[in-house]
Amino acid sequence: MSAEATTTFHSNADAATTAAAVQRVLAENKAKVLHESPDGMQIDFQTRKTMLNWELLGRAITTPAESGSDVQLTLNVHHNRPPALLDGKKNKKAVEKLAAQIQAAIG
Description:
Elements: E1 5-11, H1 15-28, E2 32-36, E3 42-46, E4 56-65, E5 68-77, H2 87-106
Antiparallel strand pairs: 1-5, 2-3, 3-4, 4-5
Helix pairs in contact: 1-2
């Protein structure tokens, strides 16, 4: 069973504004940026470890859309951490929370 969780959402803001919001939310959450495309539209990141959760590896991809932009978020268990039975459920909850934070930051 895969622990990867993915969600997508649409923003009425242009891609540059949306990508900036993604970067801001990741910084506020103290995520470590592992790689970022030159235009900032794709960001690979690692969440921070908490008392209840290991680090997660994530990717945020912002793409221009007809009336704004689309964001695809993916979170998965860090490859250096042991898998657990409820990882998929926890990752889904975490990716939905991150999406909501980004949507709130966009306004």
